[in-house]
Amino acid sequence: MPADPAEALEICAAHDAALAAGEAGYLDPRTGLFVLSAGFLAARGTCCGRGCRHCPYVN
Length: 59
Description:
This protein is of the alpha+beta class.
Protein backbone atom coordinates (compact mmCIF):
# COMPACT_ATOMS: atom_id res chain seq x y z
CA MET A 1 0.00 0.00 0.00
CA PRO A 2 1.17 3.55 -0.62
CA ALA A 3 2.67 5.62 2.18
CA ASP A 4 0.31 8.53 1.44
CA PRO A 5 -2.72 8.07 3.77
CA ALA A 6 -5.12 9.79 1.36
CA GLU A 7 -4.09 7.47 -1.47
CA ALA A 8 -4.39 4.43 0.80
CA LEU A 9 -7.93 5.50 1.75
CA GLU A 10 -8.88 5.81 -1.93
CA ILE A 11 -7.53 2.33 -2.60
CA CYS A 12 -9.34 0.82 0.40
CA ALA A 13 -12.61 2.46 -0.66
CA ALA A 14 -12.28 1.12 -4.21
CA HIS A 15 -11.40 -2.34 -2.89
CA ASP A 16 -14.34 -2.35 -0.45
CA ALA A 17 -16.72 -1.29 -3.22
CA ALA A 18 -15.49 -4.10 -5.47
CA LEU A 19 -15.95 -6.65 -2.67
CA ALA A 20 -19.45 -5.38 -1.89
CA ALA A 21 -20.42 -5.61 -5.57
CA GLY A 22 -18.95 -9.10 -5.92
CA GLU A 23 -16.52 -7.90 -8.58
CA ALA A 24 -13.13 -9.51 -9.26
CA GLY A 25 -11.33 -6.22 -8.75
CA TYR A 26 -11.28 -2.49 -9.37
CA LEU A 27 -9.43 0.19 -11.29
CA ASP A 28 -6.67 1.76 -9.22
CA PRO A 29 -7.74 5.37 -8.65
CA ARG A 30 -4.24 6.73 -9.40
CA THR A 31 -2.91 4.51 -12.19
CA GLY A 32 -6.08 3.18 -13.82
CA LEU A 33 -4.66 -0.36 -13.71
CA PHE A 34 -6.97 -3.24 -12.81
CA VAL A 35 -6.25 -4.65 -9.33
CA LEU A 36 -7.62 -8.01 -8.16
CA SER A 37 -9.59 -8.03 -4.90
CA ALA A 38 -8.73 -10.15 -1.88
CA GLY A 39 -12.02 -12.02 -2.39
CA PHE A 40 -11.10 -13.02 -5.93
CA LEU A 41 -7.59 -14.02 -4.91
CA ALA A 42 -8.85 -16.09 -1.96
CA ALA A 43 -11.27 -17.93 -4.24
CA ARG A 44 -8.29 -19.03 -6.38
CA GLY A 45 -7.13 -21.17 -3.47
CA THR A 46 -3.39 -20.50 -3.56
CA CYS A 47 -0.91 -17.64 -3.85
CA CYS A 48 0.45 -17.04 -7.35
CA GLY A 49 3.65 -15.50 -5.98
CA ARG A 50 3.35 -12.27 -7.97
CA GLY A 51 2.99 -9.94 -4.97
CA CYS A 52 -0.62 -8.94 -5.49
CA ARG A 53 -1.67 -5.85 -3.51
CA HIS A 54 -4.53 -7.60 -1.69
CA CYS A 55 -3.07 -11.12 -1.44
CA PRO A 56 -4.83 -12.99 1.37
CA TYR A 57 -1.95 -15.49 1.61
CA VAL A 58 0.73 -13.03 2.77
CA ASN A 59 2.24 -14.08 6.08
